[in-house]
Backbone:
């Protein structure tokens, strides 16, 4: 999109005004002011889950910079017309703003055009701008490891997965899970239940119970609540956690959890914004950068399975192995990745097929 | 000690004053809660209630937020007058967004002058269509509209989910669930430059006197009121109850549908999985708060918008929890319902008649 004449004019005026204040030395007078860092959360912080992890990152920023920064956040911001207003409100007092859900992509870009001197970082989107960077985590790397552990623990050979919506990120998770599990047990299968909601504890619990009833003996979920791991704990079925360390909700049955750790990234980007070296970037971090981490394994996981998982993590971090390296067939038996080939990032980002061994449709 | 006694004639002045008193009381109660949370109560009230009313852009945001609430609430209120309970404005709003988007996605960007009006008409038609189903079920099978309108809301949300993840997905969007962004010729015209306030707000404002005229000055409005107040008399007068049900639901659906397409073609600019953070449901509260009167509803929708926006501002400026908006909304309703009791009843201290001997245990 080309900027309108007015936008160009405003940007120009902003630049002149900025230069003028700089020249007059007004900026140094404000140097003692803490640097504002804003966060927009899609859910409540609560005590586990997607938003909780982002908030841990915010707390890490506060810890790293002390009173040199001031962080602000707004939680439970709907992914609609309200997001733009909230991001604009934050833009008045913050120099760097993290918008942490896919639905904030267009609002972030719109506000960023109006505030060319403020920097924005949008999580899980794909559109960038002069002052908008994007970042995301390779959840699927962790999911592959969860698959390796699940495959080693399953007796029935059937895993259960509670999925929210048929979008690429969810398909990546399901496929990585089955590929990891099949690296241990080539006959293993996954059954799916779609909840059509990111957060609906009642439905997630029902889905978990249904999967257990169908013989699934290791559960996992891509939804945001703790209902699935709690159902697994209650019924004595293994599970792997997602987003946060779920062993607090399923101390006996949680095998390990795939967690996102945004702390290092946030600290690095805030530092860059403060010293003026910030430029928009497209970051997709995994085990290598520590953006994805596995939590300690359950004592019940046999040593050979732990060693297997750790070896895979090391190989992924080194780049000598990718969860999506061939040969991979889709669920209808057609070859999706040839032997020796691996999917490119763009192919992974737009994934809309399910791998062999997954029962159920995408959607 | 004291007892409640029905008033001979409820005060007309208090009927209108009580919402204002309820608002003042809830602000006082909010201030006490702010203080208990360790936040400066006066500053918090200023941030929540005064700041959002200062400046052109803030006022535009307020009107923008109030527009869908106003449109949905007026329709709901007209129905309530005839004892027709439309709980499903959210679904009609969604269908309006969907039908209007069909026009925008198929005919937008080609410079047709008729594309925008057609899109708005399609939005209204979508809402009307969705409300026609419960109207038919009510008049033909006597299925109660409280259930059918509510249930159709979920059908509408799933239909929207299917469209944005399936046939209407942006082909350039990495399979993310959203449509293409709307072309300029099918975006709502902005009526205040540099703000997001669009034509829909102006139309909503015109709907207020139109609805007031309908209810007070037309025969149709008279019939609606009679059917609601005295169904027996309405039957005796030969008023068709079925016609009133149809009229109320279609009108209500059309207004909600218009609100839906205004949101999609206005601040959102594209069809996405969530187009409303529950405007259709919040509008039920607005209708009640506004005493089911169009002018009252105008005031109530602005108040409700202020509570939402002020709640976000409290988070940004004072790190208050997001639940604060919900608490304040609850307080307003609580005080309003409490006040209503005193409009119809009064306290009488002492006893009406001498206590009969032997009943001293009366507490």
Residues:
């Amino acid at each position: 999109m080309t900027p309108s004449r007015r936008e160009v004019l405003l940007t120009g005026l902003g630049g002149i005004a900025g230069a003028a204040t700089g020249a007059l030395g007004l900026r140094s007078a404000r140097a003692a002011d803490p640097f504002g860092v804003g966060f927009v959360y899609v859910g409540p912080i609560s005590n586990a889950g997607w938003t909780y992890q982002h908030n841990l990152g915010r707390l890490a920023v506060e810890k790293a910079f002390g009173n040199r920064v001031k962080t602000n956040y707004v939680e439970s911001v709907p992914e609609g017309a309200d997001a733009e207003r909230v991001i604009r409100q934050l833009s008045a007092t913050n120099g760097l703003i993290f918008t942490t859900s896919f639905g904030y992509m267009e609002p972030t870009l719109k506000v960023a055009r109006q505030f060319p001197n403020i920097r924005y970082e949008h999580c899980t989107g794909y559109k960038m701008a002069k002052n908008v960077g994007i970042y995301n985590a390779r959840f699927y790397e962790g999911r592959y490891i969860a698959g390796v552990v699940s495959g080693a623990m399953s007796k029935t050979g059937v895993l259960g997965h509670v999925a929210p919506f048929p979008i690429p990120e969810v398909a990546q998770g399901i496929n990585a899970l089955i590929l990891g599990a099949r690296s241990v047990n080539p006959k293993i299968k996954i059954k799916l239940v779609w909840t059509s909601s990111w957060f609906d504890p009642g439905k997630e619990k029902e889905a978990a119970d249904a999967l257990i009833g169908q013989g699934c003996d290791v559960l996992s979920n891509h939804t945001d609540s703790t209902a699935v791991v709690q159902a697994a704990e209650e019924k004595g079925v293994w599970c792997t956690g997602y987003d946060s360390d779920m062993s607090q909700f399923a101390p006996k049955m949680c095998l390990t959890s795939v967690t996102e750790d945004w702390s290092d990234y946030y600290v690095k980007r805030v530092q860059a914004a403060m010293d003026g070296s910030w430029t928009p970037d497209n970051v997709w971090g995994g085990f290598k950068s520590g953006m994805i981490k596995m939590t300690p394994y359950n004592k019940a996981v046999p040593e050979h399975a732990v060693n297997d998982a750790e070896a895979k993590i090391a190989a992924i971090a080194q780049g000598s192995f990718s969860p999506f390296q061939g040969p991979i067939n889709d669920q209808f038996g057609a070859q999706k990745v040839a032997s020796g080939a691996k999917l490119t990032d763009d192919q992974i980002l737009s994934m809309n097929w399910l791998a062999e061994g997954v029962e159920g449709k995408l959607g | 000690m004291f007892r409640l006694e029905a008033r001979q004639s409820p005060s007309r002045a208090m009927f209108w004053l009580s919402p204002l008193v309820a608002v003042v009381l809830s602000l006082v109660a909010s201030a006490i809660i702010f203080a208990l949370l360790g936040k400066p109560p006066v500053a918090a009230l200023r941030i929540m209630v005064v700041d959002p009313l200062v400046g052109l852009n803030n006022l535009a945001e307020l009107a923008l937020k109030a527009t869908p609430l106003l449109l949905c609430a007026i329709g709901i209120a007209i129905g309530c007058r005839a004892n027709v309970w439309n709980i499903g404005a959210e679904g009609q709003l969604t269908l309006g967004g969907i039908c209007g988007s069909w026009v925008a996605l198929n005919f937008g960007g080609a410079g047709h002058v008729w594309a925008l009006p057609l899109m708005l008409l399609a939005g209204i038609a979508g809402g009307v269509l969705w409300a026609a189903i419960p109207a038919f079920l009510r008049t033909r099978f006597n299925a109660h509209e409280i259930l059918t309108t509510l249930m159709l809301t979920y059908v509408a949300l799933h239909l929207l989910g299917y469209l944005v993840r399936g046939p209407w997905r942006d082909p350039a969007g990495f399979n993310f669930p959203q449509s293409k962004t709307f072309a300029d010729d099918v975006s709502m015209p902005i009526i205040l430059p540099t703000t997001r306030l669009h034509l829909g707000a102006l139309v909503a404002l015109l709907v207020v006197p139109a609805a007031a005229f309908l209810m007070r000055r037309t025969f149709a409005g008279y019939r609606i009121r009679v059917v609601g107040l005295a169904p027996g008399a309405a039957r005796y007068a030969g008023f068709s109850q079925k016609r009133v049900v149809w009229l109320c639901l279609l009108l209500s659906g059309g207004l909600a549908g218009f609100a839906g397409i205004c949101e999609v073609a206005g601040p959102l600019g594209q069809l996405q999985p969530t187009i409303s953070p529950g405007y259709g449901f919040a509008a039920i509260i607005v209708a009640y708060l506004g005493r089911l009167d169009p002018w009252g509803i105008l005031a109530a929708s602005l108040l409700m918008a202020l509570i939402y926006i002020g709640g976000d501002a409290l988070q940004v400026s004072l790190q208050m929890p997001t639940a604060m908006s919900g608490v304040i909304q609850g307080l307003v309703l609580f005080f309003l319902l409490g006040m209503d009791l005193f409009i119809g009843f009064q306290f009488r201290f002492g006893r009406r008649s001498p206590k009969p001997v032997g009943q001293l245990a009366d507490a």
Notes: Residues 74-297 of chain B form one domain. Residues 241-268 of chain B form the longest helix (28 residues).
